[in-house]
Amino acid sequence: MNGGESRGARGSVVDGVRRRPKNRRAQIAATSAAAFGAAGYHGVSMEDIAAALGISSAALYRHYPSKYALFREELLRVGQAFTTAVEVPAEVRSAPERLRHRLAGLIGATLENRATVTLVRWEGRYLEPADRAVLDRQQSSVLAGFDRELAVLRPELSAEELRLVSTAMFGVVTSLADHHAALPARAVHKLLGSACMSLHECELPPAATVSEQSVRAQIPAAFKHELLLRKAVELFHERGYPNVSVEDIASAAGLSAASAVYRFYRGKSDILAAAFRRAADRVSGAIGPAVASTPHSAAALDVLIDQFVADTFDERALAVVYYAEFGHVPAEERAVLRNIQRLSVQEWARLVREVRPALTPAEARFLVHAAFAMVIDLGQAFGNTPLAGRARVTYLMRRVLLG
What InterPro entries does this protein map onto (predicted)? Predict the structure, then answer.
């Protein structure tokens, strides 16, 4: 120490008197955002946040009455940051420039709040209904702004089709929260901005004529382990992993008691890990056959894109759970799953670069993550409606990856 003074998370000490830092609430917000982003809302306690700040739990409670208050404030803060970031000055009159301005604002806000955007994407459902309604209005305001610019540029599109393209753009940009890959901010703006502009310029295939229901294999009654896995994933998707008990899973699978589950799985976390392995293996297992059965990388990508969209449509709940509940997978499984995902993304990125050699390996990986997120988001937003049928989603995924 120099001059009898020290500074840090605990504040400062001047002449033997400890003083609270003026930006304590900002420190708490930043620390809680990082903690929630890493472990999820249910995986963090007030004691964890206090320890990370180097203060007592009592000191933390003086600023926030509960963990939920911190969680709510952070999500709604980012929702408001999005709405502010996409505002366009009145002097910007050109529709293409207005759209680019909105995209740049959304990309910038996502980069600045990457950890919390993860929560907005996957844990907003844990907000209380009134707060969730506020967050939904904030996101709707962002999408409506994109709709207005797109309506000028693409007057032939219906209101529903405009929202489809806006939602696809939003998924591409906020995909930044789904991974930890790094690129300079300027490169991210250029790459994702260009991907989004390619979406606005595309000619959408015709909407499906009928609702496309999922194609799911029937599970024989004797295959209890498969039935348990499916029912558990459906419950995790509907309620969130922390809000589902082994008893709930047993009941959904038609078992008489929770103890019957333990004949097939060691517990709830074991079921979640099995679901994640299934999802990861499905993506990784498709790569080898696609490459071996096609004459070149572009054709292999066509096969992989078709398969990814089909799998996502057929197993929507599993696709969402894979992103939303990763923090609840046991630590030893997380390491294995991350490695599988990393290798899968690398292989997709390699194929993309063989078609688009101007891309760097990092840029190609960013586009793969963006394409995956966009497909998941469109499924979340539009379900099985003809508006977002498989042909359209497949086409949009190709646009993101191949420009």
Answer: Homeodomain-like_sf, HTH-type_TetR-like_transc_reg, HTH_TetR
